[in-house]
Amino acid sequence: MATDPSIETPEAIVVDGLVKRFRFRHVHSLKETVARWVRRATVETDEFTALKDVNLTIRQGETVALLGFNGSGKSTLLKCISGVLTPDEGQIGVRGRIAGLIEVGAGFHPDLTGRENVYLNGAILGMSEAEIEARFEQIVAFSEIEEFIDQEVKFYSSGMFLRLAFSVAVHTDPDVFLVDEILAVGDEPFQRKCLDRIRELRASGKTLVIVSHDLNMVADLCDRGILLEHGVVVMDDEPHAVVRRMRGEG
């Protein structure tokens, strides 16, 4: 039966009036710190607005690239969507189970083994113990670190962290999957393996939001590109058009 084109796909992510600020304290020498304490001077801080009134809607099944040069706010936006950061103003709504790779090793406890961290990270991402148990062998096999799974992860390399973290995340069967530059870590065969799995998630109708400096990859993989400059969305279009603008080609 044909789909009625007038019926819009449900929303997966809605960002409404998002503002995110960071405050930085000035670092003084010990002498200056003591002098300020004696004078009862207030702590000096600077405020930086990383995201400024960001509004966007991502629909179920879309694969969207957040693009921009360093300092544009794309990673901060992804962290706000994931819940790692809390907005100072505005609201974010996400429909369904969300999983992602925002930082290598995030959610892993260094003194626990890889096996124990699979259960810990799986629980953080919303899986039940029974779900983790049922998928454990698949998770370990995909990561290709079977011989190290009972070793404490503080001895893991960043590449091993990536393998296990990515494997846990994709086996949660997320509705929304977030990836931030983490595919730049690890060897090339595993990067290809990760991209193949991302394509499988895309083909199965999952919602994907990707931050990457690999413009060729996102242009080919994504349905849409959102360009940020200094915390402001300046372009929202098909990805090849956004990539051309970033490259100064029009």
TrEMBL record:
SUPFAM superfamilies: P-loop containing nucleoside triphosphate hydrolases. One of its GO terms (cellular component) is membrane. Belongs to the ABC transporter superfamily. GO terms for molecular function: ABC-type transporter activity; ATP binding; ATP hydrolysis activity. The keyword Transport applies. The keyword RNA-binding does not apply. Transmembrane segments: none annotated. It comes from the Bacteria. Residues 22-250 form the ABC transporter domain. Keywords: ATP-binding, Nucleotide-binding, Transport. Pfam families: ABC_tran. This is ABC transporter ATP-binding protein. InterPro entries: AAA+_ATPase (IPR003593), ABC_transporter-like_ATP-bd (IPR003439), ABC_transpr_TagH-like (IPR015860), Bact_Polysacc_Export_ATP-bd (IPR050683), P-loop_NTPase (IPR027417).
